[in-house]
Amino acid sequence: MKNPFSAENRQQRLQSADQIGSVLKITSVPTYLIALTVLLLLVAFITWGFLGNVSDKVYYSGVVFPNQGTTDVSLPNKGMIRTMLVHSGDHVKQGQSVALVSVGDSYSILTSTVEGTVISTKVDNEEFEAFEPIVSVVDSIDTDINRTILIAYVDNAGQRDLQVGMNAQVWPEDEKRDEIGYVRGRVTRIDRYPVAAEVVKQTLKSDVMTQRLLETGGMMYQVQIELLPSKDNPKEYDWSFGVPEDVSMHVGTYCSVLSEVKRRSMFQYLFESVRTRFRAVQLSTE
C-alpha cells in the first residue's frame, strides 16, 4: 500500500500552476492600513514634538542661614584668645562668659550680648584684630523657619540662567531627594558679580563651609533663596512629600539646590542642538 504522504504522491497532486496557486496563497497588507499606520506615527511624532518638553536645570549648593544674619561678639582692641569657653553648637545666654582673652598685659572675660546658638568661634591661643568676630551667635528668635533663608553659591554658567522669582528645590546634601522630597523655595536675590572667599567667610562665619562651597576654585556668585513655609503649618517648611521623619534643616545645614531655568519643546531642543553642532563645525573649519 502506497504512503499518501510520500514525496511522489505530493508531486502528483501539484502537477499544474493552478494547483500550486490554490495551495500557496500570498497575503498582502491593504494600502490603506499602511497609510493609516504612517499617519498615526506622524501624529504621534508631532504630538511628542510639541507637547513633550526638556527642562534645563541648574544645580548648586547653599547653607540655611538666619535672615537677619548673626550677632558677633568682639572687642575694640586687638588681642589673643587664652581660653574659649564655648564651642560651635552651644547654646548661650545673654551675659554668659564665652572666652578668656588678653589685651596687652591685661586679662578679661568676654560675655555674650545675646541669647542664641553659637555657630563659630576663635580657638585657644589665636590672635584677633579690633572688632574682629570672636564668637558668632544666631539669635534664638532667628532659628524660627520664617526667619531663615538659604545662602547659595552658583558658578558663572548657572548665574547667567538664573532669574529672581524662579523656583528652587532644596534638600539636605546628605539626603536623597528622590526619597525625602525637597523644600520648595524661591530665588529672591542674585549677585551678578563674583564673590571673594573672604566675603563668603565673613558671611557664613565658617572656614569649613567657605571651603566646601567654593571648592571648585572658579568664579562663584551668591544667590539668596526664600524657604517657603507649609500652608498647613507655618512652623514647618513646605516639603514636596510632606515633612520627612528624622530630617532637619536647621541653621547651618548644608543643602543641595535645583532650579529649572528653561522649558523647551522637543522640536526646539532638537533645532537648537542641530544649530549648536552646525556652528561648532563651522568654527572648526574656519
Automatic annotation (TrEMBL):
Family annotation (SUPFAM superfamilies): Single hybrid motif
Keywords: Membrane, Transmembrane, Transmembrane helix
Matches recorded under Pfam families: Biotin_lipoyl
Ranges annotated as spanning the membrane: 32-51
Keyword Acetylation: no
Record-annotated Lipoyl-binding domain positions: 75-126
Superkingdom of the organism of origin: Bacteria
Name by which UniProt lists this protein: Biotin-requiring enzyme
Originating species: Xylanibacter ruminicola
